[in-house]
Amino acid sequence: MSHFESRIDELRRTFDGALAGVKDAQALEDLRNEFLSRKRGHLTLLFDELKSLPAEEKPSAGKLVNELKGYVQGKLDGFDKGALAAPASKKLKAQIKETSDAAGRLSVERPLEDLTLPGEKIAWGSPHPLMLFQEEIENVFLAMGFSIAEGPEIETDYYNFEALNFPPHHPARDSWDTLYLEDDLLLRTHTSPMQIRVMEKTKPPIRIIIPGKVYRREAIDPTHLPMFCQVEGLLVDEGVTLAHLKGTLEYFIRSLFGEKIETRFRPSFFPFTEPSAEFDIGCTICHGSDKACPVCEGTGWKELLGSGMVDPQVLKNVNIDPEKYSGWAFGLGIERTAMLRYQITDMRTFYENDLRFTRQFRLK
Amino acid sequence: MRISIDWLREYLDGDVSAQTAVEALERIGLMVEGREEKDGDTILEVETYSNRPDTLGHQGMARELAAALGLRLKERNWPLSELGVRTADLVDVQILDADLCPRYCGLVVKGVKVGPSPAWLQKRIQAMGLNPINNVVDITNYVLFSTSQPIHAFDLDKVAGARVIIRRAKKGEKLICLDGTDLGLTLEMLVIADEAKPIALAGVIGGQFSAVTEATKDIFIESACFNPVSIRLTRKAAGFQTDASYRFERGADIGFAPQAAQMAASLLSQFGGRSTREVVDIFPLPPKKKEIILRQRRVAELLGVAVEEALILKTLADLELAAEPQQPGVWRVKVPSWRVDLDREADLIEEVARYFGYDKIPSVIPPLQVVAPIVDKCRERIARVRPLLFHYGFDEVVNFSFSEPDRERLLATGLIPVEIRNPISARASLLRTSILGGLLETAAWNKNRGQDALQIFEAGNIYFRDEGGCQERLGLGLLSMGLREEPHWTRTELEKSRELDFFHLKGACEALFHELRYEPLSFEKTEHPCYEPGTSLAMVYREEPVGRLGRLASRLMEAFDLKPGVWAADIDLELLFGKQPKPFSYEAVAKYPSIVRDISLLVPRNVAYQDIRKALEKIPLPILEETRLISRYEGESIPKDKVSLTFRFSYRHPQRTLLTEEVDRTEQQVLAQLKRAFGAQLREGGKIDNRTGKN
């Protein structure tokens, strides 16, 4: 039996079943509509569908549809109406009629009998959670007058390291384990090279956010990936201070994690900032109460982002006078931030693209 | 760095509990990552920074802690039991490559009884996570972990000619290292040699031949300073990382070399060792003493808080940074040799900030300021594309940029992939030249988890190599398969069985170009190994193909274990966004009613719809506002070589109500033109006025 034939068969059985269950005139009329409506009836649609069948199948299929139509019409016309329950109110009846609008187009209204039936569903696509987080972060800074710039993922040693005050062969480079393409060409290990590219082209004041993919030579495990997403921030102007950095980042972290989040601002080291600072947030899992907490390892704190005042040498490298201007910069990993916020335990989840995972975040 | 609280007490004048130490260290940025109780001692795992080699020993850590807690450091004395002879009388030390070895110190200790270390020393070594070996080796390690100055002990009898020569290795030279490695040396490597051969890889590892054994009587102690870059390159080439090389590549304290030798000799005297007089100290390249000007005003300018002069001076003094006043609020600061990280004023300001307390830095939002925005057209356009695709039902995915040779062969993009020189695995040895690989993988992942129908897209870079080198380009990939929507009671059976198909995907592509005003867009037949023959079209804007769409080739379905009937599109967004879209202009909303007419035409099958469309656009028909194909029919009632196309034409005049005759005239023009160009005929009864419903 062809697919088409089996469909006809199935429809006939559906009809028989429905007719057997008809209890009132309303239901009978509904059934008639379901099969014979000029616009949406099964038979009308079947006739439409005939057109798309291969030529050799059309005659036999057409015959089947005609037979079904005759069968349905005959059964409906011959139905013993006297046996039915009293009809529904007139008003309701009027609503299920085929109505025609001003242009003469026909439409069928669905019965308003059981209003508890589920509403129509329209399937929308969802943004990837990483993009949602990126946007959320961008929006905080856009409101503070920042612009957004993106830069190349394939970078030179100069932009990725040297201009950022990493001398060649310095052990500081060990923390930025690099994937190389050529001697001087690499996959950027952070979004910071864009600091240099922006400052080379733009005179202060500069307020910019740089989102993008970065790469590290790391084996894949639940907390490490060879590719992840970062957001970099850079502000350069006259009179910019470490206090401005702290104020901005505290505001930023509170907008992401809520007013109650605990923060800790502490000294650190990065070759391209001086003084350097790291921001920790209070552990969102145990709040410092669990000595064996797997997330904060009992410290009560989680490292969130690295930051600092732009190193005077970096400013000199882009011909900005460090005596006149100062600036701050920060960088944070988007996956890591999202993981802390939603207690996602495995970073790989972001790149599996399991739609059952990604679709949830639209609701956040 | 492992730090023993007990060991710190050797340096700190005053008792410090582990908890106090942890809190103080963390305040100044030395984070404690682990804590272990061992033999009545607390061992901390402290995170150190690559610019602070001085904190890689207990002495340096104690210095930081003393400054943080307001304690003093103990003076430690290292008395020697001296022989009558001078060191130089017993050993001849010579530096041949001063650029790689700016300082070399040594002492000879005679008559050491080599044997197990005493309990106190064993405890120290165990605190560092090492096993005690013998008193000599343990003492060298004790000095290293105390002072961060690596030292080495040679069996003097094994040093041929009692000559110690610091030179680059010669071609063909080899060294059997302490760990047994037979290392071929290269010309760039610095070695310690006797008159015949290398006896140690300088600053990295000693040689087995000259190592101290139980039979050793006389010891030559080396305490030197090596070029950090040379050490790093050598240890990388040799494939080692040792406690010594880890410190030398970060920069050892060049001022401390003689004391470290003396400290070791003093400790060895507890085992019968008697040392030579006068440390041999070859110091060909004494570094310039570092002096930095520090301005109090600048401290406030950078930190955003006025730090009192007294606190600045106290911090400097605690860190043994000698400050000489120049004028009010300005000092000339002398930097001790162990602080290799301090070079500029900003470095000193960080020290002030650390001891002032980062927690006391105020939080200030930078004042609002008008900053000219940096416009990024590409981002703006992507920002319009994504919601459109969500609306069409496409989920966004993000895949890794990596690829592998097999996949590249399969996708046959014709682009030369960029290779990663040091990939983490063979599966990620290349960068992708197409977005489709990741989309197929995502489709397979979801299909294997019960999701047979999906629509996905990814916007991201692809990478390739051309004459210009390595390139990256922004691309967009779309993929759809399976049922168009989940079954729902409001849908007819026919609707429930509708699959995602070519025209659904094409609609999304058309909408995308329309949304960005890249119009008119045309489609041309094309073939590509990713797509089944005869199922793909190129999207062409301004005569240039910017993408393609079609049904994915069956070999891809096999490779990813997908059912046939997967549709995909790939668009070169970088190329497209480089082109000028149609400018936006506003048109006043029409005040007068339109006349809508449907016309069914019989058209030869071999005529492409797009050609009819183009022909219609060419006829100057000012009142024809819109043309839309509303039905396509083929069947028994019409000839086999024809199809029936029903167009809906909307006519409108901007300034007045249209007359029926005008519409009739225009309609005649349309029919005549289509007849002439394609042999299109009006179907019987194929004209319907939509207002009246009349034929």
Task: Characterise this structure.
The complex is a heterodimer of chains A (about 375) and B (about 700). Chain A is α+β, with helices and mostly antiparallel strands and about 375 residues long. Chain A is built from 13 helices and eleven strands. In chain A, strands 3-6-7-11-10-9-8 form a seven-stranded mixed β-sheet, with helices on both faces. In chain A, strands 1-2 form a two-stranded antiparallel sheet. A two-stranded antiparallel ribbon of chain A has the order 4-5. Chain A is elongated. With about 700 residues, chain B is of the alpha+beta class. In chain B, about 30% of the residues lie in helices and about 25% in strands. Chain B has a seven-stranded mixed β-sheet with strand order 22-25-26-30-29-28-27, sandwiched between helices. The chains are: A alpha+beta (about 375), B alpha+beta (about 700). At the A-B interface, helix 3, helix 4, strand 3, strand 6 and strand 7 of A face helix 7, helix 10, helix 12, helix 13 and strand 22 of B.
Brief summary of the model shown:
The complex is a heterodimer of chains A (364) and B (695). Chain A is an alpha+beta fold and 364 residues long.
Most strands sheet of chain B: 7 strands, mixed
**Rg of chain B computed from alpha carbons, rounded to a whole number of angstroms:** 41 Å
Which structural class fits the helix and strand makeup of chain B?
Answer: alpha+beta
Q: Identify low-pLDDT runs of chain B.
A: none
> What percent of residues of chain B adopt helix (DSSP H or I)?
25-40%
Oligomeric composition of the shown chains: heterodimer
Number of strands of chain B: 34
Report the mean per-residue pLDDT of chain B as an integer.
Answer: 94
Instruction: Spell out the helices and strands of chain A N to C.
Output: HHHHHEEHEEHEHEEHEEEHEHHH
- Proportion of residues in extended strands of chain B: 25-35%
